[in-house]
Amino acid sequence: MFNRLSEKLDNVMRNLKGMGKLSEKNIKDAMREIRLALLEADVNFKIVKNFVTEVEKRAIGQEVMKSLQPGQQVVKIVHEQLITLMDNTDTKIELQNNRLNKIMLVGLQGSGKTTACAKLANHFRKKNNLKPVLVACDVYRPAAIHQLEVLGKQLSVPVISDTEEKNIIKIADKAIEWTKKENIQLMIFDTAGRLHIDKDMMDEVKKLKDFIKPDYIFFVADAMTGQDAVNVAKEFNELLDFTGLILTKLDGDSRGGAALSIKAVTNKPVLFIGTGEKISDLESFYADRMASRILGMGDVLSLVEKAQEAINEEEAEKMAEKMKKNQFTFTDFLSQLQQIKKLGPLDQILKMIPGMNQAAMKNVKIEDSQIKKVEAIIRSMTIKEREKPNIINGSRRIRISKGSGTTVQDVNRLLKQFEDMKKMMKKMTSSKALKNMKLPF
Ligand SMILES: Nc1nc2c(ncn2[C@@H]2O[C@H](COP(=O)(O)OP(=O)(O)OP(=O)(O)O)[C@@H](O)[C@H]2O)c(=O)[nH]1
Ligand SMILES: [Mg+2]
Known about the structure:
This protein is 60% helix and 9% strand. It has 22 helices and eight strands. Strand 2, helix 7 (142-155) and strand 3 form a beta-alpha-beta unit.
């Protein structure tokens, strides 16, 4: 996410922090770097100008130049300005479970609307305990309805559609009538991708809005399209006065321009981000956390949330108990790997840890392929071998390496690491080690 921008800003911040004293020239130089980094990230030039002027004004002010750690102060100012740029705390999405809530999604073709419908249904069902239904108001592509139905099936959420009907108001009308009779609290309307310059299609979606009277309208924008997304958002907003944005495909190598410009241009904030193709790849957007990520300061809160969602607490306790009793086996190890994998690609996860910024990451090469290798080796073991690895002799090692498409050295290494890990666990959980541990209270 925003790798290049993050790398550049991280460098500027590092230089600033390293300086004991700051002259006006130091600050001006840093501002020039920031300006270039933002322009290169495809942030709207007017926004860049305002941003840099504001930071510079505050940074050259008395309180910074005279402070003990002027570099740190400037970093703080940049951080605060980034938060202001993306702030969405004034826009609250509050769904009620004692009434019918309606959400409508709009946007350009292929921006991720249909996928986002499913992601939102999943999100609000979990978060607010609401029963959702998806409504197919894209009648232009026959495959669109099918796509929504497939997603609905995956989630066990009903999908309302009518392949015979071309009038989306009629589809919406029937859908609302049906839903009112059922015990359902959330309707999510998928619409066709449309161009802001296509007057007929824009009229159609406006009519749909006036008919449905949705509580919230989300404009779905593909982050990879940068400034274009911002310009289109402006047009959609003028017609529909949407609530906010879902910025998709932030898992790709998007430069970040859209995320940083959209609020200032449309006065509508980003509310959610899409970070992958899976239904669970949706995150609520927090300006402060995103600012920290962009500046390479990590994002512990999102990491903890991800972990809470992916890791089964009961399972974790069982593991801890096994570690204590030194009964930890390869079967347990495999199940832990599965849980870690649920968190997402490792390099993305690591970046959320403070200090694990771009520069640090360059030297750390933890690849998902490594985990896959370990998994393959464990899967090639018999159940007995997983439970009692000390029976894995030479010929078994050869068999395992062949079965997993790895080398005997790989197998040896894993067995050795596993033994070391067990020893360490024993040490850490033994009462003696605990006695010697110094607690901070
Ligand atoms: N990597 C990634 N892919 C995404 C994300 N969101 C959607 N996609 C993919 O983008 C493609 C288009 O997504 P759709 O949900 O069909 O987009 P749409 O806006 O409904 O498209 P139309 O109905 O044709 O206008 C699909 O291949 C999705 O899997 C995301 O956050 N990350
Ligand atoms: Mg679609």
